[in-house]
Design goal:
single chain, about 120 residues, mainly alpha, two-stranded antiparallel sheet, 6 helices, 2 strands, about 70% helix
Amino acid sequence: MLMDLAVIEKSKHESLETEIERKNFIRAAHLAVTLNLSNDEIARFRYQALCRMAAFCRNAPGTKILAQNYGFSKQEVKQILEEHARQMEESEDSRLSKACYDCSSGKYLTFEEWIIHCIEKWHKL
């Protein structure tokens, strides 16, 4: 029985590594909770999931749902995303900070503009 638990635990850790490689941070955050990882590690995956939903997908309703599920306030989301935008600007891979079409506004928005639009429309999402 202990051998089975060890195999299951190893499998979960391997799954976590796979999800991180895939940049599937929503699943990684869930696995981190089931593996009883530290609160800091869980928070890191949750931040990454939120930032990926916002910056990569530009999915405002998905961002809000994740934020609610993770217990983040609107103000915390704003701070997290603004910090992520600053990090994107500093990185060599700034393609995510380029303007993308936003169907809710009908405009091309940079990520910084998208954050402002998302936070302004937060109550309607």
